[in-house]
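User: I'm writing a tutorial on reading structure tokens. Could you give me a worked example: one chain, its sequence, then its tokens, then a sentence or two explaining what the tokens reveal?
Assistant: Sure. Here is the example chain.
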Amino acid sequence: MKNKMTTLELTLASMFVVLIAIGANITSLIPFMVVGGVPITLQTFFAILAGLILGSRLGTIATSAYAFIGLVGVPVFAQFSGGLGALIRPTFGFILSFILAAYVIGKMVKKKNNVSNYILASLVGTAINYIFGTNWMYFAYKFWADAPDGFTYGMAWLWMLAPLPKDIILGVFAGIFAHRLKVTVLNKGAFKNLKIGA
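And here are its predicted structure tokens:
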């Protein structure tokens, strides 16, 4: 039984690695949108779902695996990029934030299993993504990347206004969807004994 549960955990974590990778590049199917060097993607949506659905432990594993796979050269980051060069890109902080966001979200939904808390956890995860990612971007432009003319801390946050409405809406949707999935699917069958919220 132990091996079976480990296999299920691995499958779920791997599924979210793939989903985050798809979310990173889904907008490549249309003319790619970039505001201030920040691609508008669905990465955050799937990273938040990882925390909501998998819990803090598996969610952290999935988001960490995504970052690691990209850093070793698999083109899973936005615009089908990958490799160690991503570490010095101004947007890499958003990828790192997925790990912290998934952990915090998982801890929050473990404490209270209702739809309002799922939505709150999702929005907290979105806030973590924005705060960590935007500050990383600011310091990257200030210290090692070529900053645009007249770049300021306020400008960095101004750039983030473009994807903010989309991320808030998707955050609320993620909370509702994950809670519904928990009630209808994850409390039954092979998932019932899996410590997804751990």
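What the tokens reveal: Residues 2-191 form a domain with the Arp2/3 complex 21 kDa subunit ARPC3 fold (CATH 1.10.1760.20). The first strand starts at residue 34 and ends at 35.
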